[in-house]
Amino acid sequence: MQATSFQRQTVGGFKYHVGVSSLTQVASRDDRVCVLNILGGESSEVTPVSHVYSGGNVVCGTAPGKGGAVLETSIGNIPVYNNVREALAAGHRFNCGVVYLPPSAARDGVAELIRVNPELRKIFIITEKISVHDAREIRAMGQQNGIDIFGANGLGVADSWNQVRIGGALGGDKPGDSLRPGSIAIFSNSGGFSTTIAQYLRMAGWGTTTVISSGKDVYIHYAAPEFAFALANDARSKAAVLYCEPGGYYEDDANFTKPVVACVVGRWKSKLTRAVGHAGAMAGGNDDAQAKERWFMNKFGVDALFTPDNPVVSAKGAVVTNIAHIPAALTAVMRANATMPDFAAEGNLALKPWFGSDEGLDLPAELRLPVVEALTPYNEQVALLNTQIGGVVPRQTMKDASGASQMDPRTQVSSLHGTTMLNAATFSLESNVALALVHDAGGENDRKLIAPAVAAYVNLYGQPELAAAQASREAGNAPNAVLATAAGIVGPQRQEAARAALKFMIERFHAAGLGMEFGASLSEDFDVSKVDAGAGLTSDTPDARAQALIEGVKARGGRSVFLRWLKSLPGHPTEAAVLAAISATLAWGPLSRKRISRATAESFPWWLQLFGTLIGASADASKHEPGRFCGIEQQQLLGRLSLGEIAFAALLGHTPGEDDLFAFQTLVGLLLTNGPGAISAQGAKGAVSADGPEQPDRVQLNKALIGFLTHTGYAHGGNGYEGIAYLVDQFKDSGLKDPSRTDHGIDLQALAVKAVEQYAQYKTQKKTLGSLDIAKLPGVNHPVFKDKPVNHDPREVFIAQLFEARGETNVFHQFYRALVQQLYEAGVSRNVYCVNIDAVIAALLLKMLWKPLQAGTIGERELETAAFTIFLYPRMLGCAAEIDDHLNRGRNMDTRTVASSCKFVA
C-alpha cells in the first residue's frame, strides 16, 4: 500500500519515482535532518557549519556505541544516538537523512533510515566509491518507498534563497560568502567545483538559487534529467550551469527548457581504461568528454565551444571546457535572452599575484603578470615578508629524510637540489660547488668568484692543517682520515670575522636599497657610497691573501658590487672582508629569491675555506711551497686555472689535459650524492643532529664534514679501487700503451673470453667446496637493472653516449661491455648483465691513471689513494648540501633510533 501511494506522488511523467517537482523543494527551511556517522572526521567538521547556516535544521545524528554524546555547535548541541530507531524513540522527527558512513556500511545505513522512518522523503549520500551492487540496492529501496536520493560521492545540496545547506560542505566554512541569492541554478558532478562555480558567478554579478552536488559515483541517483525537470518548475531560476565529467548518459537524456551553460571537462581521460578521480569518470564507451560536448552543442544549436576569443552562444546555451569561461558564457547567453545580471559585478577571479619573481627571465608580456597589493591584512604580511632576507623552512625530523637530495628508485639516478647527477656530470667543478651552496649551478660570474675563493685556501704551506694532515698520512691513515685531521683545525674561529663581515654587508646593502632583481649583486650602477663603512673590514697594512684574492677575481673578470664597495673604503681590505664580499655576491640572488636562508648564506665563508683546505690537504706536504702548489704559481692558482685543474693537480701532481679534465669533472658530477640514505650522508647528518640544528650557530660545519669523512671507507668510498684493481689485473700483460686510442691493438673479445673462463673456473671450485660465498665481478650487474634479456644501467648508457659524442675512446669501458656479453655467451649468466656505474667510474679513473701507472710514477698504494680521494672531493660537496639542509630543517638529535626499534644480539 505504501509503494502505491508513493507511486501516485511521482511527478513529471518519469518512468520511475521522482518526488521533487521544483528546485525549491530540494532544500527548504522546513526540512529536518538526521546525520548518520555524525561524529566522523568529515561530518564533525561540516555538519555544525550547515546547522548554523540553515538556522538549526539538524535534529539528531547517529554514531554506534556513542549514544548520549553531542555534537557542539554555536547555536546549541546536536544529540547523538546509537541508531535511528533510538533517535525516533526520543521524539525527533526528520524527513531528510545524510549518510557519512564508509562505503561498506552505506547500504545498511540507507536501509535503516527507510525501514524505521515513514516520514523520510530525501537521502543525501556523501560516501564515495559505493559498490555497484550496493548502489543498485539503494536505488531499488528508494524507488520502492518513494524517496529521492542525492549522490553518492556528492557534497549535498544548498539553497541560497532560503539559506539552507544539507549534507556536505558546499560554500565552505562560510557558505554565505559564495552562495549569494540570484537566478542561476548549479548542477555539478564535482562538489568542490560547485562552490568554485558559485564564486565565479558571484564575481560576474550572478547569484544562485539551488546548488546540487550530484556526485560522480557509478550511480548518480538524482541526475541531469531530474534536475532539468525541477529547473523548469522553479520560477526563481532563469538559467543553469552544469559541470559534467566523462561517463554516463544522464546529460543526453535531459530535456532543458531554460538556458544552460554546460562545462564539459576530462578530454584527457579518453585514453584511460580505468576510473580516475570520480568513480564514474570511465573511458571506453561513447560517453567521453567529446561525446558530451556534441550532445550539448546539438541541444543548444551551436557549432563550436565558447571561448573568450570565439564567443559562440545561442539563446539556449553554450558549451565551455574551462570553468573560468563560465561567467562570460553565461552573461552572453543571458544577453541573448534579454536578461541582465542579478547585481553589479564584484570583480573577477583572474590570477592576481601578491608577489612574484621572473627569475631574471625575459618573459613575453602575456606571461609577465603584474604584482598587485594584497587585501588587508595580507598586504601587511606581504610587506613584512618582502623585508625578510632569505627563506625559512619549517623544522622537522630529518632522520632518513632530505630536502637536498633524493634517489629515483626506478633509474637509480640521484639528484641534488633538483639537478640529476647525470646533468651534474656535465658541469664544471665550480658549478657543482654552486649547486651544493646556492642550490643551482650558478652563472658564469659565480664560477669566476668560486674558483679563486676556494683556490686561496689550497696551498697550506706553513699552516697547522698541513702539518696535521701530513702526520696523519705518515701514520698510515686512509685519505678520509687524513682529510678529517685537517678539517678538525678549520674550526668556528677561523671564519668568525668573515661571517660577521658577511652579516654586516647583507644587512647594510639591503637597507641601502640594493635591488633584489636578477644581477643586482653585479651592478656597476649601484651607488656604493650609500652603504656605511663597517669596523674591522680594512686595516692600515696590506693583507697578502686578501690582495691575491682580489687580483684573482679581477684576472678572471669577476664582478661584485660588494667588492667594489670594499675597495672604495679607506685602508686595505682584510682577508675576511674579501671572502665575505665574494660570499655576499654569490648569496644575494638566491637570498632575494628566498631560495636559501640567512644561515645558509652566512656559512659560505666557512664552506669555501673548508673546500680549499681539504683539496690542499689531499696532496703530500712536499707539494706545498711558498707561493706554489704542485708546481703551480699562486697567481695562476687564483687567477687562471679552473677548480677542476687544481683538484686534479692535487690528486696526481700535475695539471690535466683536456680529455682528462673532462673525465675528472664527469666523475665529480656522478659522485656528488647517492641520496640521504648513503652512509656518508648519514654521518654528516648525524653530526649536525648531535650539535643541535635548532641552535644553528652552534653547529660546527667542519665537524659535520668530519662526520661524512668518518663514514667513508674501503667499502663505501674506497670501493672504486676494486674495479680498478680488476681492470689492472686483466690488462697487466696486454701491452696497452694508451687507453684513449682507437688503435690500441688489444683484442678485447679474447681478453673477455679469458676473463670469463677464469671466473667460471673460480665459481666451479667454490661450488665444489660447498661454498656459497662467491665474489661478484666488480662493476657487473645491478640488483635494480636485471632480469631482461639484455640489461642496461641508464647511468652507464648516459656516460657512454656523452663520451661518444666527444669522439673519445676508453678501452676499459669497451672491455666491460665485451665482458657482460661474453658472460652470457659462455653460459655463466642467464642474460646479458648490465655494466653498472661503478664500472664506468673505474674505467674513467684508470684511463687517467694508466700512463703514470705504467711509467712507475705511481704504485698500487697511490692508485688506491687516488681512487679513494676522487670519491671524497665530490661527496664533500654533496654532504655539504645535506649538512646545510639539516642545519635549516632538522631538529636536535633527530637522527637517533628510538629504543623500541633497537635490538640486542647475543
UniProtKB/TrEMBL annotation:
Q: Which SUPFAM superfamilies match?
A: Citrate synthase, NAD(P)-binding Rossmann-fold domains, Succinyl-CoA synthetase domains
Q: Which residues form a coiled coil?
A: none
Q: Where is the Succinyl-CoA synthetase-like flavodoxin domain?
A: 181-286
Which superkingdom heads the taxonomic lineage of this protein's source? Bacteria
Where does the record place the CoA-binding domain? 55-128
Query: What Pfam families is this protein classified in?
Result: CoA_binding (PF02629), Succ_CoA_lig (PF13607)
Gene3D superfamilies under this entry? Answer: NAD(P)-binding Rossmann-like Domain, Succinyl-CoA synthetase domains
Q: By its UniProt entry, which InterPro entries does this protein fall under?
A: Citrate_synthase_sf, CoA-bd, NAD(P)-bd_dom_sf, Succ_CoA_lig_flav_dom, Succinyl-CoA_synth-like
What this protein is called in its record is CoA-binding protein
This chain's source organism reads Variovorax robiniae
Upper lineage is: Bacteria, Pseudomonadati, Pseudomonadota, Betaproteobacteria, Burkholderiales
